[in-house]
């Protein structure tokens, strides 16, 4: 079990602290001249309504997955994976968990966050009073990097726009970035996760998309939690998760789903 410590008293109120701006659609490092950056396709970014159904979003995600697997300039040329790992979960999720890239187990199964780290993430989600199927889970890269290394900036520039589209389709109330690499890649910052975790920041959608900015809570990666299963680390992660729970509750009290 995750054995997240439940702190006494009220959940810590976290104010919105915009650490960074800009979506990962903009390349961090210039790719080779022979590669063409995928553009973010304009999708429905209007407020949620009855016509904006789960089936509609699921259809958009299926179409996006097919287009990614057919056109992604990184994943269609990379030789280090056996299959892509697009993402999974509730197309109308309030919480969207973002990791950096699939590992060996994910590459084998085709699913994000499985194995020991995935089991720990499942426990974190349950501690929040949610189920895995209530959330959406994806990575910045959709294919396993060579030797499970950290994704390169050029790879993020080529594959990252598809994550941007996933976020814009689902439009969660909160993004949770898992670990330093995912946080840096998602928010385009160089600050380490130990300084960023627990501080609200904002994901800014592409200019002209019509999408709303989304609060982001950076926290430790489940694999790090497994390696450093101390009272302090567990307390910090649980504090981050409680802040997410509070933000969702506040959002639901002011804005209809």
Question: Could you walk me through the main structural features you see in this protein, from its secondary elements to its overall organization?
Answer:
By secondary structure, the chain is of the alpha/beta class. It has one domain (54-254): Uracil-DNA glycosylase-like domain (Uracil-DNA Glycosylase, subunit E). Helix content is 38%, strand content 10%. The protein has 8 helices and 6 strands, in the order αββααβαβααββαα. The chain has a 6-stranded mixed sheet with strand order 1-3-2-4-6-5, sandwiched between helices. The protein is globular. The two termini are 31 Å apart. The model is unreliable at 5-37 and 42-47 (pLDDT under 50).
Q: Give the beta-strand count.
A: 6
Q: Find the structural class using helix and strand composition.
A: alpha/beta
SSE order: HEEHHEHEHHEEHH
- Proportion in helices: 25-40%
Distance between the termini: 31 Å
Low-confidence stretches: 5-37, 42-47
CATH class, named Alpha Beta
Annotation keywords:
257 residues; alpha/beta; Uracil-DNA Glycosylase, subunit E; 6-stranded mixed beta sheet; 8 helices; 10% strand
Task: List strands and helices in order, with pairings.
Elements: H1 54-71, E1 88-89, E2 95-99, H2 104-109, H3 115-127, E3 136-139, H4 153-170, E4 174-178, H5 180-187, H6 193-196, E5 201-203, E6 214-219, H7 222-227, H8 231-254
Parallel strand pairs: 2-3, 2-4, 4-6
Antiparallel strand pairs: 1-3, 5-6
């Amino acid at each position: 079990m995750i054995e997240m410590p439940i702190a006494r008293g009220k959940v810590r109120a976290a104010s919105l602290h915009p650490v960074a701006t800009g979506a990962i659609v903009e390349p961090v490092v210039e790719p080779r001249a022979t590669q063409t950056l995928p553009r973010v396709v304009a999708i429905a970014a209007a407020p949620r309504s009855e016509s904006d159904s789960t089936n509609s979003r699921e259809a958009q995600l299926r179409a996006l997955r097919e287009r990614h697997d057919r056109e992604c300039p990184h994943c269609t040329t990379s030789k280090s994976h056996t299959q892509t790992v697009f993402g999974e979960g509730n197309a109308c999720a309030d919480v969207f968990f973002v990791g950096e890239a699939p590992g060996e187990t994910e590459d084998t199964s085709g699913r994000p966050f499985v194995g020991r780290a995935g089991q720990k993430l499942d426990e974190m989600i349950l501690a929040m009073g949610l189920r895995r199927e209530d959330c959406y889970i994806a990575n910045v890269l959709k294919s396993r990097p060579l030797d499970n290394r950290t994704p390169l900036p050029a790879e993020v520039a080529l594959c990252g726009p598809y994550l941007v589209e996933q976020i814009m389709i689902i439009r969660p109330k909160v993004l949770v970035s898992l670990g330093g690499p995912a946080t840096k890649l998602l928010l385009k910052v160089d600050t380490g996760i130990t300084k960023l975790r627990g501080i609200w920041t904002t994901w800014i959608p592409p200019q002209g998309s019509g999408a709303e900015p989304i609060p982001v809570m950076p926290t430790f990666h489940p694999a790090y939690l497994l390696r450093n299963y101390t009272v302090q680390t567990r307390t910090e992660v649980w504090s981050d998760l409680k802040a997410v729970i509070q933000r969702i509750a506040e959002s639901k009290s002011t804005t209809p789903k």
